[in-house]
Structure to design on (416 residues):
């Protein structure tokens, strides 16, 4: 029985299998309660994202957790097992710390997984499937992830096109809060750009799209304004930053349109980031004095450099996870020793109380005090040395010199 994790992720399983193993939000509460029933301490946390499903439990057996997963999702054992990884104790602790720190992600160092792990822990707390060990395990993991973020550069460098575009804007403008941003397109990449801009507390975002309905759906989430592509010339002069990503076969912004907008801006600089292929912004725009145009190729160059930087930071992060997982398991073992000491002490006190009560009864009934005390001392000694004597005898008969040596040290017969 130990701390265990079993799971599958983007490295071990196809999307098809990951979908079958995933837990929907409306079922995860009951699923954690069911999984917790397989643990001696009733502890379980399920982390389920698009890239991974992992089951964490304490005082459980790996085979029991795997069996539960197969039964819950009605999965074929032979199909599942080649894709499953299972870790115990310190390796399990290190694994979660690596996951929460972004070391096991599809994109090295990505921060979203930490929020997902925290959310899973909150749901487990709500389901009542955490106790002392799992609670400490996850709280320690969150502290490790924070340590990795603050002491290494793993999250500092942009490694997605959307993040790189926003990071570039941050380098050019001291603060993005007061900037006005025009986003062209409403696909997945632009939506991610909008999310990063929101994280930077940008207040003014306009989203231009061919169909305004698609733009409006995104704008509701980010408190932005939706416009159509023909309305761009009206809004372009107000934009400090333009980020474009559409599937248009022809450029949307030409040199003439941008030049006219710059005149209306009285030549205040404008940053334009074109992350579309084919291009949304004519290359000639980059020739304008106050227009700073960057393409997806420029961003990819930045991303490659940043990935190299993240890999260096990951080496430092791995050391942190290794060290902290060792410390956590030492804490778990100290808990076990505390439990053993408490149990041993409780057992000894119970023997003492039982024999003292018998002795007092004998004295009350007129027994000889000296004889009663002597009998009490003999019986107490015999009861307390009974188990150690049996253990010493068994180790001697079996020739188990290691156990015999440990027992002699524990009983004070030999020094360390």
């Amino acid at each position: 029985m130990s701390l265990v994790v079993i799971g599958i992720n983007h490295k071990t399983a196809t999307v098809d299998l990951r979908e079958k193993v995933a837990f929907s939000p409306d079922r995860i509460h009951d699923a954690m309660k069911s999984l917790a029933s397989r643990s001696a301490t009733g502890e379980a946390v399920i982390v389920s994202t698009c890239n991974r499903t992992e089951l964490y439990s304490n005082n459980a057996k790996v085979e029991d957790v795997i069996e539960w997963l197969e039964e819950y999702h009605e999965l074929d054992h032979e199909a599942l097992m080649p894709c499953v990884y299972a870790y115990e104790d310190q390796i399990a602790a290190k694994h979660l710390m690596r996951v929460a720190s972004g070391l096991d992600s599809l994109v090295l160092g990505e921060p979203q997984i930490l929020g997902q792990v925290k959310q899973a822990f909150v749901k487990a707390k709500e389901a009542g499937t955490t106790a002392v060990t799992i609670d400490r395990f996850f709280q320690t993991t969150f502290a490790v992830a924070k340590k990795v973020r603050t002491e290494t550069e793993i999250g500092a460098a942009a490694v997605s096109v959307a993040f790189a575009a926003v990071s570039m804007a941050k380098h050019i403008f001291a603060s993005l809060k007061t900037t006005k941003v025009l986003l062209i397109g409403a696909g997945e990449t632009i939506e991610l750009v909008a999310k990063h801009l929101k994280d930077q507390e940008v207040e003014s975002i306009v989203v231009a799209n061919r169909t305004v309905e698609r733009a409006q759906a995104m704008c509701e989430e980010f408190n932005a304004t939706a416009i159509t592509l023909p309305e761009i010339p009206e809004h372009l002069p107000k934009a400090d930053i333009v980020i474009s990503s559409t599937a248009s076969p022809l450029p949307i912004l030409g040199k003439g349109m941008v030049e006219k907008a710059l005149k209306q801006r009285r030549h205040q600089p404008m940053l334009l980031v074109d992350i579309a292929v084919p291009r949304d912004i004519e290359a000639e725009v980059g020739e304008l004095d106050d227009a700073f145009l960057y393409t997806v190729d420029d961003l990819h160059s930045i991303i490659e450099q940043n990935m190299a930087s993240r890999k260096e930071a990951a080496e430092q992060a791995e050391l942190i996870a290794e060290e902290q997982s060792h410390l956590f398991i030492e804490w778990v073992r100290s808990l076990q020793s505390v439990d053993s000491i408490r149990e041993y002490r409780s057992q000894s006190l119970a023997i003492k109380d039982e024999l003292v009560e018998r002795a007092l009864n004998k004295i009350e009934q007129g027994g000889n005090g000296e004889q009663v005390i002597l009998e009490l001392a003999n019986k107490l000694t015999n009861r307390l040395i009974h188990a150690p004597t049996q253990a010493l005898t068994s180790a001697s008969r079996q020739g188990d010199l290691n156990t015999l040596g440990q027992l002699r040290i524990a009983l004070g017969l030999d020094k360390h």
In short: The first helix runs from residue 15 to 21. The chain has 15 helices and ten strands. The mean pLDDT is 90.
